[in-house]
Amino acid sequence: MPTYEKQHDQTLTAEQRFREAFERLKLGVPQVLPKGTRVSQNNVAKEANCDPSALRKARYPLLVIAIQEWVDSQKSEQPSLARQNLLKQRKKKRDTRKTMADFKKQRDQAIGLLADADLRILELSEKVADLQAKLDEIKPSAKVLNL
Fold this sequence. Notes:
Layout (H helix, E strand, L loop, with lengths): L2 H9 L2 H14 L13 H7 L13 H15 L5 H58 L9
Helix pairs in contact: 2-3
């Protein structure tokens, strides 16, 4: 943090830091928290680089009321519960499709390995039969004489 910002932060009162953090969160341009962080009393305190317990209604009643009113007004603008459920279902289906694709890939690999093993068994069986035939040609045949 540049020197100017450090000096600027040190000259501000805690309430001013909370108010600036609240404004940054409302505008969606936080400096401490990740972008898209929702506005809440705890997040305002965190954005102001303070412990969440520091922002109390007893100490800063007007600010806390303003935060709560803003949060309440934004609830109506948040996606409806039905929309959220729909998004969850889509994600679950997407995850299921991905899992199925992984299973199909594993199945295809197993089938390929099985086909390779079958071919190798066939080759070795033919080789054994050929060697047995050669052995039978070379081996002297013993004749049993009946006495």
